[in-house]
Amino acid sequence: MTNRLEEELIMKPKVYIAKPVPKEVEDLIARHCDYKMWRKDEPIPESELLKEIADVEGLMTPKGIITKEFLEKAPNLKIVSNIAVGYDGFDISAMKERNIIGTHTPFVLDDAVADLVFGLILNTARRINEFDQYVKNSEWNHHLDSEAYFGKDVHHATLGIIGLGRIGEKIVKRAKLGFDMNVIYHNTSRKYDLESKYSIDYREMNDVLKEADFVVLMLPLKESTYHIMGSAEFGMMKEDAVFINCSRGKVVDEEALIDALQNNQIRAAGLDVFEVEPIDKDNPLLKMKNVITLPHIGSCTRDARFDMAMKAAENLVTGLTGKTPPNVVKELQ
Ligand code: DGY
């Protein structure tokens, strides 16, 4: 009997893929699973997803909002493969109770996100979007040479990173090797290896806020990080400092950020994430020239998204063949 026939005779586990994925990724899943996939570009409606999970053993999803109620609708579910590195949508205790394997996609998006962080640093400091609009609005009629037009240097400035994980390390590398920056950081655990590799210094969080010219928040969303940046924290930042957030919107008290910007307590902000996504069209941040607002595109490059989908598929298939997938989230290991 050929391997192919053998494969066909073995019952493949049923899975649902909740967003379109590249052909190579679909092919990998097809070899091992009996699958259905949401093929439209717009996100799958919740009601549709709830119908699809009724009889599957595996789910691959870009959002992964996995609650107790969700799991009740999926009695056969064994594994949720999140096509993202963040898994704040996982209700860990509900998943533990049901012995659900939960995986994510670390490493493959670190460089893409770090690039975007630097895009926001450069853009806010040198006011790139603002001056692009200025030129396009035909306002450019003289040589710009006064305080009102000056930007802020990125090179040799102090970068403060709050949350030094995999992406943070990539940011440090760019800052030190590319921009000669002085880097300080705060993290729940000290990163002695990175301190000696890149000559960076550990600080208490408040000291990062007080000393940095650019504060970059790179924290996962958990109970302990919810609204970790509030009015007291923005109040500690330098008046000329820039705030960057490419992690999760809810780690910031957005009202407090808006106040800090409106009262000129800080210079500017570069934001890829918001408390509510998509952002409310009346959000005051949208009217501020010194704020760059992006639609959560940290990992949104062709290569990063391909690699994330492939990694998620490998996690899914491995989990369903009875082995431990390579990227089980640490709370479920
Ligand atoms: C992630 O992977 O968590 C990103 O935020 C999704 O783009």
Describe the structure concisely for a colleague:
With 333 residues, the chain is of the alpha/beta class. It contains 13 helices and twelve strands.
Give the averaged pLDDT, no decimals. Answer: 96
Given helix and strand content, the structural type is alpha/beta
Distance between the termini: 38 Å
Q: Strand arrangement, largest sheet?
A: 8-7-6-9-10-11-12
- As a percent range, the share of helical residues equals 25-40%
Please provide the ordered H/E string of secondary-structure elements: HEHEHEHEHEHHEHEHEHEHEHEEH
CATH class of the largest domain: Alpha Beta
How many discrete structural domains?
A: 2
* Biggest sheet features: 7 strands, parallel
Number of strands: 12
CATH architecture of the largest domain, by name, is 3-Layer(aba) Sandwich
What does this structure look like?
This protein has 333 residues and is an alpha/beta fold. The protein folds into two domains: 4-107 and 302-332, NAD(P)-binding Rossmann-like Domain (Rossmann fold), CATH 3.40.50; 110-293, Rossmann fold. 37% of the residues lie in helices and 14% in strands. The protein contains 13 helices and twelve strands. The chain has helices spanning 3-9, 23-32, 46-52, 68-72, 92-97, 110-125, 128-136, 166-179, 192-198, 205-211, 231-236, 254-262, 302-320; strands at residues 14-17, 34-37, 58-61, 79-82, 101-103, 158-162, 182-186, 201-202, 214-217, 242-245, 268-271, 291-293. The strands form two sheets. It has a seven-stranded parallel β-sheet with strand order 8-7-6-9-10-11-12, sandwiched between helices. α12 (254-262) links the parallel β10 and β11. The longest helix is centred in the C-terminal third of the chain and has 19 residues, at 302-320. The mean pLDDT is 96. Bound molecules: (2R)-2,3-dihydroxypropanoic acid. Residues 84-86, 109, 298-299 line the site of (2R)-2,3-dihydroxypropanoic acid (DGY). The site of (2R)-2,3-dihydroxypropanoic acid (DGY) has 6 residues, from loops. It comes from Sporosarcina oncorhynchi. This is D-glycerate dehydrogenase. It holds the Pfam family 2-Hacid_dh_C.
